[in-house]
Design brief:
This protein is mostly helical and 504 residues long. The chain folds into 2 domains: 245 residues, Growth Hormone, Chain: A (Up-down Bundle), CATH 1.20.1250; 237 residues, MFS general substrate transporter like domains (Growth Hormone, Chain: A, Up-down Bundle), CATH 1.20.1250. It is 72% helix and 1% strand. The protein has a two-stranded antiparallel ribbon. The protein is globular and about 60 Å long. Bound molecules: glutamine. The site of glutamine has 5 residues, from loops.
Length: 504
């Protein structure tokens, strides 16, 4: 049974599935919420222990890499997952549809985590590559499916995305606790020893737990597939029955070329500068073309640039901040000590607490709320402030471990920034993009996260845990650079608004 008023060209939503899910939303939202919750559980659980595992001495069960090498690998891996979203979106749109892409992506991710459960360097890298590839296939398409659950006029769409963002963060909150406990805690190591196993392999139990999480997500997704049968279908082939294999080859080659170029940027810094110059050139090129569509693309590229800078700081949570938490913070609460990887959950706790507050604020302010370029500027400001905060914290490390309050406030400031930039960015992209380029523009949004993640790795390579003055310079220089970008973006607000041509 389908609802009679489904607009032409959009999939008909069966009326029995139109409500009955979380908060009165379509039933399929609950399924996507749970599947993405478990996918993010696996992603962030593995990420929470990744850097620590790489820098741990071989004799203690780690890989024994130095900080620079580990941060480089970390950046390339996290970049690849987001960068491959363009390819994943293309495959879904032109070949197999979003629903099947999510399933296959999930299977590849789970296999990747289980591969990392094996104790060798080669399986470690194969596992990372599988997780990145699977993420590219799953992440953009699960988000598209959320949108497809609603008719274009359905007022519940934005709220649906907020509920979905909550699912992301519940998964991201729980997994560092579980994976971090298995990888790092004395209790679990003792259990392993009790079973006659080598306690130094505890890290691989952490990786395996990430795989179990993804498997649970897949089970929910398959069991409840009936609720999603009407969305993310396989697209019709072209008029002559063919599929765009040539274009697929180009997207694949382009993605791999960019990943390789960024990998080499660890050694050849000029690649990063070239990329920045290219972005500025593209903004200027599109801004001065006569059509409104080009001007909006220029605005999208300004947002892209700002998002890239934002993620370059924010995504150091898993690298430099992970090391700060591990080596320089007194990880005790109420007299009880906890594994340093638990810090990776704190951003999500803040999201879960702050997201409803922001939703309320935007509703209260209504038309008086700041425009999206202003929200982006504020997002950058907050992330810059979070590193200003770390300047005195870094100085204090000269006298021993510092209070956990520093990191608690750091994550608070960063999450306020995230709330101003991340969900706002998603919706602004959909508003500014020409309809036929919607998928591409979404891919571009994730590309900003990809490049930001890589830059985060490059920047974190300079982290110094034994030199308090050097460490405070590390934070101060980055805060100043982002502060300068904030000022430039602020000055550009009236111009960006004009480029947006009426879109807020
Ligand atoms: N934390 C969010 C997620 O994992 C957003 C990440 C991003 O877009 N860079 O989905």
């Amino acid at each position: 049974m389908t609802s009679p008023d489904s607009p032409a060209g959009t999939p008909a939503v069966p009326t029995d599935l139109h409500t009955g899910g979380l908060g009165g939303h379509p039933r399929g939202l609950t399924t996507l919420f749970l599947a993405e919750m478990w996918e993010r559980f696996s992603f962030y659980g593995m990420r929470a222990i990744l850097m620590l595992f790489m820098v741990l001495a071989v004799t203690e069960g780690g890989l024994g890499y130095d900080t620079r090498k580990a941060a480089g690998i970390y950046g390339t891996y996290t970049m690849s997952g987001y960068l491959l979203c363009i390819l994943g979106g293309f495959i879904a749109d032109n070949f197999i549809g979003a629903r099947r892409s999510v399933l296959i992506g999930g299977v590849i991710i789970a296999l990747g985590h289980f591969t990392m459960a094996l104790n060798s360097e080669i399986t470690f890298f194969i596992g990372l590559a599988l997780v990145a590839a699977g993420t590219g296939l799953l992440k953009p398409n699960i988000s598209t499916m959320v949108g497809s659950l609603y008719r274009p006029t359905d007022e519940r769409r934005d709220a649906g995305f907020s509920i979905f963002y909550m699912g992301i963060n519940i998964g991201a909150f729980l997994s560092p606790l579980v994976c971090g406990y298995l990888a790092q805690s004395a209790g679990w190591k003792a259990t392993l020893a009790g079973w006659g196993l080598d306690p130094r392999t505890s890290w691989h139990w952490g990786f395996a737990a990430a795989g179990v999480g993804m498997t649970l997500g897949l089970i929910v997704y398959v069991l409840q597939r009936g609720r999603l049968a009407h969305v993310g279908n396989k697209p019709a082939p072209e008029a002559d029955g063919s599929r765009p294999w040539g274009k697929l080859g180009l997207v694949l080659l382009g993605s791999l070329a960019l990943i390789t170029a960024m990998w080499f940027s660890d050694t050849y810094k000029w690649i990063v500068y070239l990329l920045f110059a290219l972005q500025i050139a593209l903004i200027v090129f599109f801004a001065f073309r006569p059509s409104q569509e080009s001007k909006r693309l220029a605005a999208i590229l300004v947002f892209f640039f700002a998002a890239e800078i934002f993620w370059a700081i924010f995504e150091q949570t898993g690298s430099s901040i992970s090391l700060f938490a591990d080596r320089l913070t007194d990880n005790r609460m109420f007299g009880q000590s906890f594994p340093s990887s638990w810090w990776q959950s704190v951003n999500s706790i803040w999201v879960i607490l702050l997201a409803p507050l922001f939703a309320w604020l935007w509703i209260q302010l209504g038309p008086r709320q700041p425009s999206s370029p202003v929200k982006f500027t504020l997002g950058l400001l907050f992330v810059a402030l979070s590193f200003v905060l770390m300047v005195p914290a870094a100085k204090l490390t000269a006298h021993g471990l510092v209070s956990p309050l520093w990191l608690l406030v750091l994550f608070f400031l960063q999450t306020v920034g995230e709330m101003l930039l991340s969900p706002v960015g998603l919706s602004t992209m959909t508003k500014l993009a020409p309809q036929r380029l919607l998928g591409l523009v979404m891919g571009i949004w994730f590309l900003a996260a990809a490049l930001g993640n890589k830059l985060a790795g490059v920047l974190a390579g300079e982290f110094k845990s034994e030199d308090a003055a050097g460490l405070s310079t590390f934070f101060w220089q980055q805060a100043l650079s982002v502060g300068a970008c904030t000022l430039v973006l602020f000055a550009l607000v009236p111009w960006v608004k004009r480029l947006m041509g009426g879109v807020r």
